[in-house]
């Protein structure tokens, strides 16, 4: 018997720019943008949601993005905020060593290593996020996001116990998300 291998490329690899849109990361509110931009964002989110919902890797991808690798951008029908919420519900935190092959989160302008942002902050403690962003060649909101994540991690790490949730637990939390509707 011959086993047919699925060689299709997942939609996120075919259209990476749609998944890495910064507007998904620093939550855009309606009043910050024009109606046309808002409609464009809604459409783009609906598109990537639909692509992920039809992806055969959805369950694996969701589990890895929630439990194993803190990826940047939209993944498995979730934004980074969605995945943080799921982790909070599960009571877990990703411990991602800086030498992990996955340690460079995805970014629209190329990989910005979380550790590099923190190291630069330590080297230039008085510089603004804009100045740090210029040194890194990324946006100020990317720098702010990394610094916020470091702060939040530090606050949570002490009482947090490491545990590995099951796929079912992750899926249950995912099902409770507003953004999972229709997936
Ligand atoms: S489910 Fe994961 S692998 Fe599939 S398109 Fe979405 S982000 Fe890509």
Attribute tags:
183 residues, globular, binds iron/sulfur cluster
What does this structure look like?
The chain has 183 residues and is mainly α. The protein folds into two domains: 11-95 and 162-183, no CATH class; 100-161. Helix content is 51%, strand content 0%. The protein is built from nine helices and no strands. The longest helix has 19 residues, at 35-53. The radius of gyration is 17 Å and the shape is globular. Mean pLDDT is 80; it is low at 97-110. Iron/sulfur cluster binds next to α1, α3 and α4.
Principal-axis shape equals globular
Question: What proportion strand?
Answer: under 5%
Please tell me how large the radius of gyration is. 17 Å
Indicate how many domains the architecture comprises. 2
Number of separate strands: 0
Give the terminus-to-terminus CA distance: 33 Å
Classify the secondary structure makeup into a structural class: mainly alpha
Ligands bound to this protein structure: iron/sulfur cluster
Count of helical segments?
A: 9
Order of helices and strands: HHHHHHHHH
In the predicted model, the low-confidence regions spanning at least 5 consecutive residues are 97-110
Look at the structure and give the mean pLDDT.
80
Specify the biggest β-sheet.
Answer: none
Helix content: 40-55%
Give the SSE map.
Blueprint: H1 11-14, H2 16-19, H3 35-53, H4 58-68, H5 80-90, H6 114-123, H7 129-136, H8 140-157, H9 167-175
Bound molecules: iron/sulfur cluster.
């Amino acid at each position: 018997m011959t086993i047919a291998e699925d060689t299709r490329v997942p939609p996120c690899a075919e259209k990476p720019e749609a998944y890495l849109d910064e507007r998904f990361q620093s939550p855009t509110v309606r009043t910050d943008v024009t109606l046309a931009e808002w409609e464009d964002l809604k459409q783009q989110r609906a598109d990537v949601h639909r692509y992920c919902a039809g992806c055969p890797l959805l369950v694996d991808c969701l589990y890895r993005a929630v439990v194993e690798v803190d990826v940047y951008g939209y993944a498995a029908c979730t934004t980074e905020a969605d995945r943080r919420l799921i982790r909070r519900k599960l009571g877990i935190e990703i411990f991602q060593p800086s030498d992990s092959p996955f340690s460079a989160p995805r970014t629209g302008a190329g990989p910005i290593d979380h550790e590099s942002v923190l190291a630069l902050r330590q080297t230039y403690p008085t510089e603004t996020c804009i100045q740090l962003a210029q040194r890194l060649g990324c946006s100020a909101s990317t720098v702010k996001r990394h610094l916020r994540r470091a702060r939040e991690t530090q606050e949570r790490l002490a009482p947090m116990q490491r545990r590995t949730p099951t796929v079912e637990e992750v899926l249950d939390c995912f099902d409770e998300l507003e953004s999972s509707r229709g997936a």
